[in-house]
Amino acid sequence: MSFHKLDFKEITENEMKNRSQKFYYQMKSRRTVRDFSDRSVPLEILESCIKTAGLAPSGANKQPWSFVLVQDPDIKKKIRFAAEAEEKEFYSHRATKEWLEDLNQFGTDWHKPFLEKAPYLIVIFKQVLDADYDKPRKNYYVNESVGIAAGFLLAAIHNAGLVSLTHTPSPMKFLQKILKRPENERAFLLIPVGYPADSAEVPVIRKKSFEDIIVTI
């Protein structure tokens, strides 16, 4: 392993404060959207967002992730059909009463038209094993690493001026089959991306206060 000097340019405390506050207010405006426009988005924008996600830190730098960018209408239709089948079971049989009560505020059900309407779907797969060797090797802190990369991706999408949805139909094994992913991968997150529909609405929700989430010792 070789090393090189860290490329770090120090900025003033005032600039640090300005940057941190600007980013906070930018991310404060991010909302999960379920009503998408079918308006096209240049592919290079999505590619840049995924490149950003690929810069996330990971356990032992294993980078245990793959990002499948879906724009083919036929594949999106297959994903919608399979996802709605799982979601119908969830809403009808699998979900507990408490879980459904918690979801009521969002007005959701098993119908998922956004899986076809959004111009892109990004499916994040976690690599439970590293297959780049003659014999597969263990990856470390896979869920934590892929979760951080997903956070990078959501921030990059919002920064680019687009909207997204974190969708987790359960189980998600159908994604591995439809997208023909190798055996060492498991679907982690399904993210529709695009512009919001002109009529898009979002529920009025409350985030926890700063005092509720911080402990300073």
Q: Can you give a write-up of this model?
A:
This protein has 217 residues and is α+β, with helices and mostly antiparallel strands. The protein has 8 helices and 6 strands; from the N terminus they run ααβαααβββαβαβα. It has a single domain, classed as NADH Oxidase (3-Layer(aba) Sandwich), CATH 3.40.109. It has a 4-stranded antiparallel sheet with strand order 1-2-6-5. The radius of gyration is 19 Å and the shape is globular.
List keywords for this structure.
8 helices; 41% helix; 6 strands; 14% strand; alpha+beta
Write a concise synopsis of the structure shown.
This protein has 217 residues and is an alpha+beta fold.
Write the layout of secondary structure elements.
Blueprint lengths: L12 H16 L14 H11 L11 E6 L2 H22 L2 H7 L10 H4 L2 E8 L1 E2 L6 E2 L3 H18 L3 E2 L8 H6 L6 E10 L15 H4 L4
Describe the main β-sheet briefly: 4 strands, antiparallel
Indicate the multimeric state.
Answer: single chain
Order of helices and strands: HHEHHHEEEHEHEH
What proportion strand?
Answer: 5-15%
* Strand order in the sheet with the most strands: 1-2-6-5
How many E-type strands? 6
Name of the CATH architecture:
3-Layer(aba) Sandwich
Note the gap between the termini. Answer: 37 Å
Q: What is the number of independent domains?
A: 1
